[in-house]
Amino acid sequence: YGAPSNKELYIHRLGRTGRAGREGKGLLVLLPFEKKALKEIDLQRLICVNIEDHKDLMDKVDFAQNLVRSGHPFLTPNAEAAYLAFVAYYMTSKGMGSRDDVVDAAKVFAQIIGLPKLPDLWGKLQ
């Protein structure tokens, strides 16, 4: 999770998309508060799009969110695990802001991934 903090880290993360001379594509998904990280990554070929401008993608997101909300046996527990990883990552990240900022961002993340309610973090951390 999290936007890469510099060009080198971004390239490192993309390393698996094109090995042994093969070409590949990478997708960097950012939440609104992470957009500032793009200024740190100076890449000429980086194309930024807003998913809300693409109805076909939004339809797929809506479908997946509905599956998570309905308690899908695979997607819902994985969405909860993603939420926990998100909180853990940003609670220990520098430059994210206060704990309240992390909590607010985590609530937005939970909505985006379709969680009907916030997972119990305390129970998951024990």
Automatic annotation (TrEMBL):
Record-linked SUPFAM superfamilies: P-loop containing nucleoside triphosphate hydrolases
InterPro entries: P-loop_NTPase
Protein name per the record: RNA helicase
Phylogenetic lineage: Eukaryota, Sar, Stramenopiles, Ochrophyta, Bacillariophyta
